[in-house]
UniProtKB/TrEMBL annotation:
This is Secreted protein. It holds the Pfam family Methyltransf_24. Keywords: Methyltransferase, Transferase. It comes from Pseudofrankia inefficax (strain DSM 45817 / CECT 9037 / DDB 130130 / EuI1c) (Frankia inefficax). The keyword Methyltransferase applies. The keyword Kinase does not apply. One of its GO terms (cellular component) is plasma membrane. One of its GO terms (biological process) is methylation.
Length: 205
């Protein structure tokens, strides 16, 4: 991975451990030239930078989808709330300025297209096949299932599905991403690798 982009990813706000970021990059770097990488859940762009670095190396492109108002677990009073991403004008979270700054500073705006909207709504009208889908959106059960239902069907045969924050033991974390992982295995995906809480699967049916 380009060392400048790796440093940018490491410095960005987010919740991805270094080894999982490297595994995300490695999976995305296998996307064929001209392929599309789609990220569900952007936050401030930490994982987006790993994907952008891989896309640049592979000759692919990245689309990242998020409403940028924060997931349930990011809101005030929750464990993962960061008051520095609250817009003082609206009093609501707004991670979009942080994403745009990170993409600009890293020089990857040419390979990343930002879509602002609820992921399940965008997925409802989306028609382009996806070579790699990375799901890391809201971790409430209803939201996670809606993200999967909207986007997993767009993964091309032989394409990859990556799910973050998969914790089989409830003591380690929320169960919604783990339930997506089990659903994917039951619906035509097989596991290729795992690093920490990151699962890499492939569509085989």
């Amino acid at each position: 991975m380009d060392e400048t982009l790796r440093r940018a990813a490491l410095a960005a706000k987010g919740f991805m451990p270094d080894d999982e970021g490297d595994a995300l990059y490695a999976a995305a770097a296998e996307v064929p030239a001209g392929g599309l990488i789609l990220e569900v859940g952007t936050y401030c762009g930490k994982s987006t930078l790993y994907l952008a670095a891989a896309a640049r190396a592979a000759g692919a492109r990245v689309v990242t989808v998020d409403h940028h108002r924060g997931s349930e677990e990011n809101q005030a009073g929750w464990e993962h709330h960061d008051p520095t991403v609250v817009d003082p004008h609206t009093g609501r979270m707004d991670t979009l300025p942080f994403l745009r700054r990170n993409l600009w500073d890293a020089g990857v705006e040419d390979v990343v297209t930002v879509v602002v909207g609820r992921t399940e709504e965008v997925g409802g009208w989306w028609t382009t096949p996806v070579a790699l889908l990375f799901i890391d959106g809201g971790h409430a059960e209803e939201q996670a299932q809606a993200d999967y239902a909207a986007w997993a069907r767009h993964v091309a045969p032989g394409g990859a599905l990556l799910i973050h924050d998969v914790f089989p033991d409830p003591a380690d974390g929320g169960q919604a991403p783990y339930h997506l992982y089990l659903r994917a295995l039951a619906e035509g995906f097989k596991e290729r690798s795992r690093t920490g809480s990151l699962r890499v699967l492939e569509r085989v049916e």
